[in-house]
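**User:** You know discrete backbone vocabularies at least as well as I do. Would you mind producing a protein record, from residues through to fold? Write it directly below this note and I will take it from there.

**Assistant:**
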Amino acid sequence: MDISVLIDGLHPLEVKVLTVFGTSPAGISLATEQLATGTTLEPSQLSMAIEWLLAKQLLSINSETITPVVSLTSIGETYFEQSLPIERVFSAARAASSTGKRLTIPDLHAKEGLDPSDVSKAVGRLKKEGVLLIVQGGCIESTGRPSPSVESMRALLQQLHEAPRELESFSESHRQLIQDHAVKRGNAKEPFRIDDRVARSYVLSPTGVTAADHLAKQGVAEEVSQLSPELLKDGSWRAKRFRKYTISLRAPRIGTGKKHPYREFLDTVKTKLVSMGFQEMRGSLVETEFWNMDALFMPQFHPARDIHDVYFVKEPKHAAHIAEPFLSRVTKAHENGGATGSTGWGYTFDSRRAKLFPSRRDCAGRRHQF
């Protein structure tokens, strides 16, 4: 390829990167940090320029090092300012044992305001360490021993609050603790985050060396995107480099709109339910558990109704009332089948729970009922 044609096709950002190589010793490899200093480009601009040069085979990767780095999440910062769930469970158990009071897991949920999953994990780890005992009646007792996990977690929060650190800089036990409590897919409520920090160095290809040498010797005029009256008046356009238009490129692809797959699924479900005798109604985006689940004969003990699978409205938590005779009919259907001919689910229906406000509905705000 003619070197002048190659130079004309370079973007100003690419020119800056090649210029840094051209002013450096021949054959040297430069790290990303060195290129950032030499070009004074923003990280995003430098990343684009490097990717373009790699695609044009003017640049190649000389070395690459991936280093896991640990930092605190927003949850971790909150735990640092306040206390960890395991610390709260540990303190509550010690306090109860010192006063001779009974302490159960439901007590921890109520008094400490902890998430059930946090309590379960904390109790499990403390029990494994021999710090807690589960005695008759499901009560929790402290053995009086210190907890290595509590002490280590507090130390890790203190260190990482000051600044992120490389994972390898921690001891083996601390690394294991960090990995156990690091954010993972499906479990974002953790105090630690492990990110891979990629350090690369780059070297010019033979063609890149030629281009960099040409830029170093000839230089490149300032590039402008359009001809202005000022450039014409003073004749300075002769010393400028105008960005070329590539008429052979395809026009931007226009994406045609189409229905979202989930929208199609919901419409299919609606069609089938209506054909079975259900009636479609429209209402607010937030509805009670009664209309969302109870009226559809989903038992209140069904695992899909767990707090982790349904979003609940914080205020107000409950509806004032459920219209009759719907509440009575659904209650009987759940408990013994009522007048439906079914035997029901055979449990005591909780009418207060039926008034809860979960926000799980389809995106059109529709509900379906008998």
Summary: Confidence is low (pLDDT under 50) at residues 360-370.
